[in-house]
Amino acid sequence: MSKKFGNFTIESIMSSPPVVVHKETSVHEAARIMFNNRIGSVLVVEDDGRLIGILTERDLVYLVASDKLHTASEMKVWHLMTENPITVKANETIGDALSKMKEVNIRHLPVVNDEGKPIGIVSMRDILDYIISFLDLSFH
């Protein structure tokens, strides 16, 4: 019996290790890291490595639109990040992740371990790539 695509686990599609920044990193530096890594978000961690937020392209658009771009080199990511982001565990299903993303209209889901430390990230693109490869395999 074959599994439906939504029943596979996050672990099979997550990007790991995730790109993380410390909460005291400047927004400018975080944006540079996102640009250099060609990614749409960075995970923000506390001193002990626990996830406390996520900084996304949307946050950077807000910064530009609010005419506060000149403060990006001094502003710390914790000022702009989304606090306490929605997360998933590696053993949750892709279907669960997709439901969470749709429910709150987000495109990036941090994957955390039992201690709340980031071990990966899943983006809408990861899920879409997986669905496309699943469909491609199914039709050949």
From TrEMBL:
Q: Which UniProt keywords apply?
A: CBS domain
Tagged with keyword Ligase: no
The UniProt entry, under InterPro entries, shows:
CBS_dom (IPR000644), CBS_dom_sf (IPR046342), Diverse_CBS-Domain (IPR051257)
Domain (CBS): residue spans on this chain: 14-73, 81-137
Could you tell me which SMART domains the record lists for this protein?
A: CBS (SM00116)
| Name of this protein | CBS domain-containing protein
Q: What is the lineage of its organism?
A: Archaea, Thermoproteota, Thermoprotei, Fervidicoccales, Fervidicoccaceae
